[in-house]
Amino acid sequence: MSSSHSYPHEPTGVETRKLGMWVFLSTEILFFGTLITTFMIFKGRDFPGIKLTDVYDIPFTSISSFILLMSSLTMVLAHNALEAKDQEKTRVWLLATAMLGAVFLAGQIYEFTEFYHKGFELSTNIFSSTFYVLTGFHGLHVFIGVVLLLALWGIGQRQKGLTLEGGMNLEFVALYWHFVDIVWIVLFTVVYLI
Amino acid sequence: MTKIIEPNKQSNIFKRPSSETGIWSWITTVDHKRIGIMYGYAAFFFLLIGGLEALILRIQLSQPDNNFLTAAEYNAMFTMHGTTMIFLAIMPISAAFFNYLLPLQIGARDVAFPRLNALSFWIFIFGGAFLYSTFIFGTAGAPDGGYLAEEVGWLGSAPNGGWFGYQPNAGLKYSPGTAMDYWAIGLQILGIASLISAFNFITTIINMRTKGMRFMRMPVFTWMTFAVSFLLAFSLPIIAIALFYVTFDRKFGTTFFLTEGGGDPVLWQHLFWLFGHPEVYILILPAFGIVSEVLPTFARKPLFGYAAIVFAGFGIAFIGFGVWAHHMFASAISPVAQAGFGLSTMVIAVPTGVKIFNWLGTIWGGKIKLNTPMLFSLGFIGMFVIGGLSGVTHSVVPADTQQTDTYYIVAHFHYVLFGGALFGIFSGLYYWFPKVWGKMYNETLGKIHFWLMLIGFNLTFGPMHWLGLQGQVRRTWVYAEETNLQFWNIIVTIGAFIIAVSIIVFMINWIFSKRNGEKAPFDPWDARTIEWTIPSPTPVWNFSKAPEVKSLDDFWHSKYDEDEDGRAVRKESADQMLIDLEEEGLNPSENIVLPNPSYFPILLAAGLPFLGYAVIYKSIPLALIGALFLLIGGFGWGTEPLEEEVEENLEHE
Fold first, then answer.
1. Partner of A99 at 20 to 30 A CA spacing, among A27, B16, B326, B652?
2. Which residue segments constitute the domains of chain A, with CATH numbers given?
């Protein structure tokens, strides 16, 4: 905005949109918090039928978790590249992040299908229901993240390239993406490991 | 002479909306004032519908063993009455105030995210339409062979499991048909709208304050908006997840809340009230804010204990998350939990009491002008104290288990939400009427409205206390003649109709004054906050230049000095200052950049009901239509430049 203008002011010094993103993420914590709490409540109870421990494959999920974590690294690299005004590298790392996210999603779809074949279905018991809703809700977030990353990559194809200002910029897609990754660390621990 | 910078009319998918008047200008607007006005009218429309439902309920209950409604219709009516009043009337009417006033009170040109603001509004509209489409498409009924099994007319084909949707009663087994799906998904959509506006207001208050507008100089109404936004942001996710579970239970065969599959109906109550109790404060805190603006203005004294009122508001918001189980004393919760929640319920009365005493301190010794807004604010204090006191009685667990599910509870929460929230809202509607329309309302009609409503209100809800203590059960469509409850029930019904009459008086006043009212002076109430430093009706650009605030109640201090005894003395320069302010407000000296109107908020919002129908009818085509709307809306939104074009334009100037 031009400086001759008395608007806008940002008394906190944080860019307004980034602040909005932080507020949004703080709400997301409560979404996942409620899901995880429900999961924990039901986990300790008796329920009939097949359990997650009968069907899951820890090494497989560990690898896909690792892939998702790596995507946070590539996201940081994309951000660094953009700060260094290297458009080409930014695009490459963005695409890499999106691809890693997509691989994670593919892994989750494969995993769900396997579980279904082994009889661990959505309505098998209360545990399977909470499992699918919880991890599915996270998967939906990853999916939205991948869409955002690809959109950003598409915008980067334009002549002007990407900037760190304006509309939907790399910085808050990155915030979102890191958040989704961190949530997965919690989910992986809570659902698979303990 | 200045001009408002017009954006280029080029755009990505469509041409940019360009109409400035007429219906399209309202559909595409991102102006917080217009959105506020639309919120207000839509909410008032739903208030009328909810009121109509209440009248239908009262006709049924006016006689013992009445046949005006069937049991199924009665269930549908009280469910829709509660749901409508809470989610479609009081919450959005508060949102109307937030939208219109918040940027004005902090000296901003608009909210932080104008298009998101429009999105919230349209999601609310589509959510309300979706919920009410149950009367056309929805089906409700009783379980096979159940005692209520009967032919259900269109009136009964609405959600019938109560606004609280207790499980398993609201589950598929006991509430077959699709009506409760409409309820669950409708609330989900409405929740999204409130959530988005919560982000928007929090960000706006933190980051859009004008120069010198420190936190402790913000008007109390802005503070309460802040508190409410936090409450929304942290409580709605809980109900959203719980409603997910309900939808999964009803549509996809899971058993989150059904004991058959190891689920837990009490978990629903916990999740629901973890949202539901903060929700109570979401409904009442805006009224607290309004009253805290009106009282000092009409008592001509500063607000007594500004900081105490602000922190008490946040205290209420915080403790509000720790009292939810007092709605569940009759459920299976342990005695320790009962004692704990009983105590926290008593504790939350403390900050509420702080507020009450501060308001009394504000009017104490003031030169009180009894205009309609002041009458409503005083009525608010009186009625809210009654409701608050009956609320504290619920913290006594043995007494509460006795009162649970009786009309005593109905009386209590209507004193809080009608005598409290709605009286506050009416106070605000009259108080800011000149600001919004540039006209004065009719004072006589306003006073008639107040007294009719006060009498009608007390006739309606006062006797419910003793009806409840005599044992009349709520949510039940008949009572037997032998119970001797008839006398007070007919009084209650008469009271309800008096309220209806008072609402008609209000509408006449509104419509008449808006057309033919006297032109409002610049600062009709001799007010204290900076929204009165700009002309009425508010110009589209709000402030000609960003105002600078030097103290709390800045506008007052620019008009008044103190003499030795601490009395306010009007400055000689005050009148000239007002003339200058008006002149400046109407003729801004700098270029004005306003956010551009956009088609995409309404397009994006239009996708949600389709997704809702897709879940209810498990239809892929509907889901695709919904997704298409989201995609077009999202893509257009993301690629629609908000600012660059304007900058290019500036260079041409």
1. A27
2. 16-44+56-193 (1.20.120.80)
